[in-house]
Amino acid sequence: LPVLAIVGRPNVGKSQLVNRILGRREAVVQDTPGVTRDRVSYKAEWNDKRFTIVDTGGWEPDAKGINASVAAQAEVAIDLADAVLFVVDVTVGITATDEHVVKMLRGTDRPVIVAANKSDDERRDLEAYALWNLGLGEPHPVSALHGRGVADLLDLIIATLPDVSAVAKQEIGGPRRVAILGRPNVGKSSLLNKAAGEERVVVNELAGTTRDPVDEQIELGGKTWRFVDTAGIRKRVHLQQGADFYASLRTTAALEKAEVAVVVLDVTEPVSVQDLRIIDLVLESGRALVLAYNKWDLLDDERRRYLEREIEQDLAHVAWAPRVNISARTGRHLEKLVPALETALESWDTRIPTGKVNAFVAELVQEHPHPVRGGKQPRILFATQASSQPPTFVLFTSAFLDPQYRRFITRRLREVWGFDGTPIVVNMRVRE
Ligand code: GDP
Predict the structure, then answer these.
(1) In angstroms, what is the span from residue 190 Cα to ligand 1's centroid?
(2) Is the Cβ–Cβ distance between 221 and 335 less than 8 Å?
(3) Are 38 and 56 in contact (CB under 8 A)?
(4) Helix (H) or strand (E) segment spanning residue 97
(5) Which of 94, 161, 117, 141 is nearest to 17 (CA)?
(6) Could you tell me the distance, in angstroms and rounded to a whole number, from the CA of residue 335 to the centre of ligand 1?
(7) Taking Cα atoms as reference points, which of 263, 291, 180, 159 lies closest to residue 228?
């Protein structure tokens, strides 16, 4: 989906505007598998057109950290979004912090839409039009609070966004898109350098690809891959505050562009909360997943003894993800990354014909019927795979299935079809 990033300093009403945009829709889609954290991206829809909103303002710095944090938000927006919605507070006007962002936005070829928020009535429109002098085009007066002007703004957003993400469009049938993710110092940039250095870095001759200098095309295992948001790996942003939020933002935005994620873990350190958070973001995004255990050259016997047990415990929920043990320093087993990526993508693309899904369900129900509940037997009437990328199944049932039974079905789907390297989604539709 095309990505709209919302940028602006704290208190201009970004969150309220996001709520307005989402609230106008019939239903909030996003199936979040039980992950609690600050949300960054939302699926939105207007006039049958769907897009992703990335709210870069989910974390509000104090006065000292404002400039750095707003600049970091703008940077992610410019690098990774298809269009930027810049929100200004008309009751305050332009501040020094805004000026900073304006400079960055003027320098980009991404379309920028200026929303003059808190234009609660017509008297404010005059102040809104004063924002013409930002040099970012026509300012659009809106009131996120009252909803004034929001429909017009949404029309404009839809008209401005490409049909599919610009990046995705360029590449139908092109190289597959990989995001390298991981907390700081696990070896992401070392891995990238090694991968780019071992094999030839493909010089970009494709028309239209130069506008994405944040990505790199790298040849690995005889194939060309597009590594997305490598700029985010190469440039390091040092923030005193909000570094975690900024990292999540960057990760979320990179996932939006990628098809498969390589989550890099440091073999010398136990799996951390931050590692698990990153993995959660991948699961939420529905992208394929490969785990790369890096710094294998530093693994000692003692650590080795704990490693397998730790993986079994902490990474049990992603036991289906292919794992490669590598050393970005020595280049050990880097070539194993390619089959792992291929396996994960193949699973991610898989489509099981409806006949087979129903045969699977029939057999499963016969062997392990759903427990009788309140004198009744919940039945599965029909099942189908509604989509791939990731494989998403829909079960039409006579009543809600117990969570345990749903987990059992998911487990069996994996036993039968593998799906190594991809999350799978099992949804239910209850027909009374
Ligand atoms: P990033 O923050 O994830 O991009 O991590 P870097 O690539 O900058 O690596 C962090 C540190 O770990 C650097 O000092 C690297 O030299 C070191 N490092 C990265 N990969 C390996 C590895 O495979 N083995 C060893 N011994 N050190 C590594």
Answers:
(1) 6
(2) yes
(3) no
(4) helix 96-106
(5) 117
(6) 18
(7) 180
**How far does the centroid of ligand 1 lie from the alpha carbon of residue 238, in Å?**
18
Report which secondary-structure segment, H or E, holds 5: strand 3-7
List 23's β-bridge partners, or say none.
Answer: none
- Separation between Cα atoms, residue 117 and residue 143, nearest integer Å: 5
Q: Is 87 in contact with 115 (CB distance < 8 Å)?
A: yes
**Single-letter code of the amino acid located at 122:** E
Ligand 1 near 298 CB (within 6 A):
yes
Which amino acid would we find at residue 257? K
Q: Which two tokens stand for residue 54?
A: 């990335």
Mutate to test the pocket of ligand 1, among 190, 238, 274 (most ligand atoms within 8 A of CB): 190
- In tens, the pLDDT along 125-136 reads 888 998 998 999
Residue 24 DSSP SS3: coil
Kindly give the number of the ligand 1 atom that is closest to the alpha carbon of 326: 23
Count of residues for the chain? 432
Give pLDDT tens digits for 265-318.
999 999 999 999 999 999 999 999 999 999 999 998 888 888 989 998 999 999
Instruction: Please state whether the predicted TM-score (pTM) of the whole model is above 0.90.
Output: no
Q: Are the C-beta atoms of residues 248 and 76 closer than 8 Å to each other? A: no
Structure tokens at 191: 């891995």
d(CA 168, CA 230): 17
Q: Write the DSSP string, 82-94.
A: SEEEEEEETTT--
Q: What is the DSSP letter of 358?
A: H
Ligand 1 atom with least separation from CA of 233: 4
Indicate whether residue 327 lines ligand 1 (CB < 6 A): yes
